[in-house]
Amino acid sequence: MPAELHRRLTTLDEEVDPIDWDVVEGNWGWEFPSDYKEFMDAYGEGSISEFLMILGPCAQLADDENRMREESLNAQATWSSTVESERPPGVDADSLVAWGVDGNADILCWSRRGDGPHEWPVVVYRRQKGPAWRVYDIGMADFLVALFDGAFSENPMSGAELWEERNHRFLSSKKEKMAFAAGIDPWTGEADPDAGMFG
User: Around Cβ 108, how many Cβ atoms within 10 Å?
Assistant: First the structure.
């Protein structure tokens, strides 16, 4: 994971639950990109600036809380329903694996192509603006840095919450759930009588 991303993304989480990558990759049937594994080992599953959810690689594929699998299936179904002329070449529906989803229902994926995960490009489904699909020949971590820097020719996302905003906060899903359950807004740290209503 680029040091630049680590500098841009602060977290208050002191501990991250360890991931047994041998088990995870054995169950999924493939190796994940190294920058993603480094991100997960450093931050875990959670949200960037209360907008972009970075999905964790749930070890049990049939787990009801396996959002990576759920969003991957959503991406694959959306790709298949997109007219062929609007699909970027070199991507197949079955190759899409979701690693992020945002507040506008954009889905950030990899396309599992090439000789290994180091070659997987980022594929973005942008729900609210065309074209719906874009392919970026960089990894997940470099994509996030470029998004924060506004280094693409245009914002790859539907919303501008992360675009050209260089510094962000990260909050793990675990810590967010604990705060909500305690009646605390996890992003402000202040008491919120409605915080536990949906947790």
Answer: 27
Any idea which of 13-17, 111-115, 189-193 has the lowest mean pLDDT? 189-193
The topology under which CATH files domain 3-172 is: SMI1/KNR4-like (3.40.1580)
Greater pLDDT, 161 or 64: 161
What is the spatial distance between Cα 60 and Cα 34, in angstroms, rounded to a whole number? Answer: 20
**What per-residue confidence (pLDDT) applies to 59?**
72
The pTM of this model reads 0.89
Q: Is the pLDDT of residue 83 over 60?
A: yes
Which pair of structure tokens corresponds to residue 64?
Answer: 């009801």
- DSSP letter at 119 equals G
In which residue are the tokens 């070890």 written?
A: 59
First to last CA, the chain: 31
Q: What single-letter DSSP state applies at residue 184?
A: B
* Amino acid, res. 16: V
Amino acid code (one letter) for 69: R
The domain segmentation of the chain, as residue ranges, is 3-172
Residue for token pair 């997109």: 82
